[in-house]
Specification:
31% of the residues lie in helices and 16% in strands. It has helices at 17-23, 42-56, 85-104, 119-130, 159-168; strands at 3-5, 14-15, 30-35, 63-67, 109-113, 141-146, 176-178, 188-190. The radius of gyration is 17 Å and the shape is globular. The relative contact order is 0.25.
Length: 206
């Protein structure tokens, strides 16, 4: 059985975070989708973009930042340490409802930050953002950013799951690969035995 050594992908189209931020035009509507494995820096990047928008002059109400992780907390405010289909499905249902509600308010900046390894879902977001059949002033500039840092994830997701997400991330045409501050340092794993849930397109235990 072939072994796959998980090393940082050597690509020549890395983008510095600061370079991307400087190119953003906050006078226009922007929809930014951030993707990557757990601990890759998605939430930090999302906050940095939101802060840059505020410095430009956008108000809090102009910015809509949402992540599925926001809905992984229990009634006591504790992040769920159980990663199964039921927990994921409940969080995903809440996330989708909240996204729909927030999108319909037409904020100037939308930031969606999740693992996003389902390319079909990214295409759906792109179509929604660009809204080619709608009014021009309701369309968003759509950008996909991919983070690849190797930070400790905040939610205690098992390391083998994080590594499997990293190894199996699919490329999305036109995405910006944000240059990692702390590259992944991972081990050799058997690709065929990596845990993956086809139904939910995520790496969670059964």
């Amino acid at each position: 059985m072939e072994k796959a050594k998980m090393e940082l992908k050597e690509k020549n189209n890395y983008t510095e975070e600061s370079v991307f931020l400087n190119k953003l035009n906050f006078d226009e509507k922007n929809f930014i989708l951030i993707r990557g494995h757990q601990g890759s820096g998605k939430s930090t990047l999302a906050k940095n973009i939101a802060n840059a928008a505020k410095e430009f002059g956008l108000n809090e109400s102009d910015i809509f930042h949402i992540e599925r992780d926001f809905f992984m907390y229990d009634e006591n405010g504790e992040y769920s340490k159980v990663f199964n289909q039921e927990v994921y499905k409940k969080a995903d249902d809440k996330f989708r409802a909240a996204f729909t509600d927030g999108f319909h308010k037409k904020p100037k900046l939308i930031i969606v930050s999740n693992v996003h390894n389902n390319l079909g879902e990214i295409i759906n977001y792109k179509s929604l953002a660009e809204n080619k059949k709608g009014r021009k002033n309701e369309r968003y500039n759509f950008n996909v950013l991919r983070t690849q840092n190797g930070f400790q994830n905040l939610h205690n997701v098992p390391s083998e799951h994080v590594q499997s997400v990293y190894l199996n991330m699919k490329d999305f045409n036109g995405e910006h690969l944000i240059k990692p501050v702390k590259p992944m340092n991972v081990k050799t794993l058997d690709r065929d035995n990596l845990p993956f849930n086809e139904e939910y397109q995520t790496y969670i235990t059964k």
